[in-house]
Amino acid sequence: MVKSEQKSIRGEDLKAKVLQTTLKLFSQQGYFNTSLQDIRKSCGVSIGAIYHHFENKEALAKALFETLLDEMNQVIMEAMDPHDSCRAQSHAVAEALFQLTLDEPQKMQFILMAQHREYLPDAAPICSSRPFQSMKDIVEQGMRKKEIRSLDDWVAASTMFGGALRLMNLHLDGALDRPLMELLEETMDCAWRGLKA
Amino acid sequence: MVKSEQKSIRGEDLKAKVLQTTLKLFSQQGYFNTSLQDIRKSCGVSIGAIYHHFENKEALAKALFETLLDEMNQVIMEAMDPHDSCRAQSHAVAEALFQLTLDEPQKMQFILMAQHREYLPDAAPICSSRPFQSMKDIVEQGMRKKEIRSLDDWVAASTMFGGALRLMNLHLDGALDRPLMELLEETMDCAWRGLKA
DNA sequence: GTCTATAAATGGATAGAC
DNA sequence: GTCTATCCATTTATAGAC
Question: Which chain A residues have a beta carbon less than 8 Å from that of B167?
């Protein structure tokens, strides 16, 4: 039944299907444990079709990675947009990222926990990617407006989001007993107490 | 010259040399980008010798991983030992881990940034390993003694050490402009403000 | 205990038909 | 644009000499 639904997939739909399947397999097993044959089988497509849309395995991973970083950055921008204060923006961003972690665990797994530089030699470290830069910007802005006290930029950013990011990791590792979202208020309150002017 | 120094390495010395070389290569290139041939060449030993001391590549990685987790836990225990209060213990542990990151970046790189479960299917998530459990214990103890306010255990632990761990990551990624150790006081002060009763 | 040579399998990538 | 068949390099692991 699954097979019959897929048989007519072509063009951009096929490309999207490949990306979707690749995300699933990479996040579950990792890049190196996933062969192109695995991807081929899992989405009922041929090797030739995959190579038509992506130059090679590395380019496939790169396309996926960049798509997800863009998406994450989009989520961050939309979350902070309606707010003015550093505190409100940070809270909204953390909430949006928690929600994304719950809605799309594979995407967050791939972004947060994969070692991209092992297979994308030219990739920048994740901490300098746009979404993480956006988060750092929020905190630096808050420091300029004296909402948070004067601290090293990296210390301030790590304090604001370090706890929340760690909880996302723990959730994805299955370590948390309580629902992730229930921990949002406490975590961001702790961060704020540590930073406020 | 290097070769002539190594030619007589045998037995336990050889085993240690293999582990040391493996750490270097795994932390630099990752597990999957490092072949046994790479290890063989890099430490001037034969494949046969490696297989004599380790059942297979996975067992080699496992031996290395467990050694490093033990070492890290040892560092933590020794750092907290002279202190009583949760605050002093946490500070000492963070300082010791910063120092370990500076002294042995490859070891911390391997512990903090590798995705061990991609090649050690039976490995527990890193957050439940002994060193991380020790850190969590310090915080929970502090909560019982009312030094820090009543919070979810994971939130408290993530707040106390989330910032410091993130800074270690950033340092290893080369993202920090300032020396890691200069950020210790500020980071742990932020964490403490967020947690104190 | 250490070595070399090689087996056996797998994976990325290509060629060419449709 | 998609498919199948195949090439070639690489890798883990073993066998057997020393």
Answer: 154-155, 158
Query: d(Cα A56, Cα A52) in Å, to the nearest integer?
Result: 9
What is the Cα–Cα distance from A129 to B171, expressed in whole angstroms? 16
Which chain B positions have a beta carbon within 8 Å of A123's beta carbon? none
Q: Residue A41 sits in a domain of what CATH number?
A: 1.10.10.60
Cross-chain residue pair A114–B115, CB shorter than 8 Å: yes
- The predicted model gives B85-100 an average pLDDT of 98
- Residue A10: predicted pLDDT: 86
Q: Is the pLDDT of residue B5 over 70?
A: no
pTM of the model: 0.95
* A44 and A90 both lie in a single domain: no
Asked if the Cβ–Cβ distance from A125 to B33 is below 8 Å, we say no
Domain CATH code at residue B172:
1.10.357.10
Nearest chain B residue (CA) to A128: B175
> What does the DSSP 8-state code read for residue B104?
-
Q: Do residue B40 and residue B80 come from a single domain?
A: no
Cβ of A186 within 8 Å of Cβ of B155? The answer is: yes
Is residue A173 domain-resident? yes
Which residue type does B62 have?
Answer: K
Portion of chain B with pLDDT greater than 90, in percent: 94
Provide mean pLDDT across the span A46-52.
98
Q: What gap in Å lies between CA B183 and CA B41, rounded to an integer?
A: 39
> What pLDDT does A3 receive?
39
Residue A6 has pLDDT above 80, yes or no: no
- Establish if A121 touches chain B: CB-CB under 8 angstroms: no
DSSP lists the bridge partners of residue A83 as: none
